Prior knowledge:
This protein is α/β, with parallel strands linked by helices. Helices cover 38% and strands 20% of the residues. It folds into 4 domains: 2-171, 3-Layer(aba) Sandwich (Pyruvate-ferredoxin Oxidoreductase, domain 3); 190-361, Thiamin diphosphate (ThDP)-binding fold, Pyr/PP domains (Rossmann fold, 3-Layer(aba) Sandwich); 375-442, no CATH class; 447-555, Rossmann fold. It has an 8-stranded mixed sheet, with helices on both faces. Strands 9-8-10-11-13-12-18 form a 7-stranded mixed sheet, sandwiched between helices.
Amino acid sequence: MDLNIRIAGEAGQGIQTTGDLLVDAFASMGLYVFSTQSYMSRIRGGLNWYDVRISDERITSGRERADLLVALSEEALETLRTVVTEDAVILFDGDEAEGALAINFTKIAKDEGGAEVMANAVAAGAVFALLCYDLESLTSLLDEAFHKKGQEVVDTNIALARRGAELATRHQGCITAPEPAGAPRSVYNGSEAVGISAAASGVKFVSSYPMTPSTGVFTHLAQVADEYGIVVEQAEDEIAAINMVCGATYAGVPAMTTTSGGGFALMNEGLSLAGMLELPAVIMLAQRPGPATGLPTRTAQQDLLFALHGGHGEFPRAIFAPGSLEQAYGLTRRALQTAHNWQTPVILMIDQFLADLRMNIDPLDATPQPIDRKLVYQPDPDYVRYAVTDSGVSPRAIPGAGVFVVADSDEHTEDGHITEDLEQAVRLQDKRLRKLEGMVAEALEPRLHGPQGAEVLLLCWGSTWGPCREAVDLLIEQGVSVAMLHFAQLWPLDVEKVRAAIKADARGRIICVEGNTTGQLATVLRCAGIDMHPQIMGRSDGLPFLAEEIVAEVAS
Length: 556
């Protein structure tokens, strides 16, 4: 069974603190946890909420309705009380509310703890009591969380949690809740998974201009910079950020930048520069709805075609899009290694949904394991940077290796000097593009979940993996012949293997589930020569897909 808890109110009321506290506490008990956030692009006010879904089995999607609503404002109460299950319990941070259990968390925190900010401890205690969970799991976490602030702060928070539990049980009996199931205790969000992997893989320079929802990765790398020896530079803009990455990679340093749509637009000239100079520049592109500023704190999958075609001219690139936290960790390393293997830009695409979701998984290895930079440390005396090879990959030395390492943004000869010789230009362009043959040979195949030969096939990429996976499992339980094919690598593609996996002629129905309205994955597949005309299940409201929505679409 599973239960969905929604904490809702205004920005600045501690919604995220309460949600994070509950997620960590539930995970420490051995429950499976999956949390998502919906928040406005404002510092205070508005209507935000944080969903914490718990279960005795692994879950990979949010839910529309709440079984327990914790309303911290009048707007939250009135707006969201209609989006609850039939037997839902509503907690209200106030003195009274019709149809709700009123516990004035804020007043209690101020009167009994001395600060309104501690209302999250009162609310968390009330939630634990309503679920009839042992409060010690929560108090142990409070001890751990506030230990550095002193014992008095710890004791006050624990006392407030107990007070919230006392008031909740005085007025309401237990809600049926899942039992702990030995789930992993380690909790991460998508930004942390990418950041941990980048640091462990040997990134030594990151330059970014903060932009939601990419900032989480940037700040994580800043937090661990001293531990891993990373130089973190907050650039004046995205143009400077990508150009700094080009400079760092030219010098042999594993480097990356993080950005979102508008920032990636500014990086396009630098992206093209990396393509010409054959530099292993890695860009983490965290998507949000557009165009322009769009919905800056919401989620989308609207930048696939932009990532594929961004940058003027033709040059090879790879594009990865993780769907889970494990993939976010693994594909970050793969993106960095691919960039260095083939000396070409690589784009790692996530989105707000994946960046912010929190769930418990097995611990991620943060031990430093640097990628192979594929450098030549003792080049021959006749070394030239852009030597033409069968693979398209030239020996890569770095400045200071005892030879000249000449690079130029103009078309150039093998030794890096500018040329207007058209035959040479074609020769070097063909060399660069020849890398795609080897990149295709090692491309990740789309991964099937569900039975071979299913009548209905869901196509998805990136963060839609979780909702689609849960939907497929639910539909199979209902006797529906359905499977999903998830693309974690979007480019380049091994077209023959993709065509064989899709088997368009043998399917009764193909549905492309994407966080856009134009079916960008479907467009990429058709342009690659895969003949199919799937139904597009898209959205552009800035909210993530839910498994239950996909189930309803397949059943329609």
